[in-house]
Amino acid sequence: xxxxxxxxxxxxxxxxxxxxxxxxxxxxxxxxxNDTDVMFSQMMVAHHGQALEMxxxxxxxxxxxxxxxLAAAIDVTETDELRTMQVWLDSWGRLPTTDASAxxxxxxxxxxxPDDLKALQAATGTDFETKFLNLIIAHQHNAIEIARxxxxxGVNPGALDLAKRIDESRTAEIQQMLRYLNDPA
Length: 185
Hints:
single chain, mainly alpha, 6 helices, 71% helix
């Protein structure tokens, strides 16, 4: 019961709200999309995949219980968001991901460096936590940038809503993780 309360607290503190999976409805809302909506979803599918890799490491390797709880909350939220975006892309007749070079004109794929991920996989204890926090903070900042791209020129109501929630929740997560970095107790 205590773990459930901690997980719920982490959701609330981080501003995490899981996005419900949205199957393509018979109406027009799901069919209204533009290139920005597609690019947002494709970039975030790849981005979420890396975030999930990192938080799943933290769920087992982090020393601090509060950090493991936050990682579990991020895992649940981003897994659900990932499914939602995959459903959208499928309903739009688009691939779930695209070649990273396709996004070069707007800053690339915004993902974590493979060498940083390898260093994180090799780390343990408090060294792992420091590396994880620094890496996931930067990663979540990139998610905010991608979300703001969507809110500036996207048109799909579901994608716009998800982008807004990503902006808000990742901003809160970053603030929480910065506190963890400043108070490693």
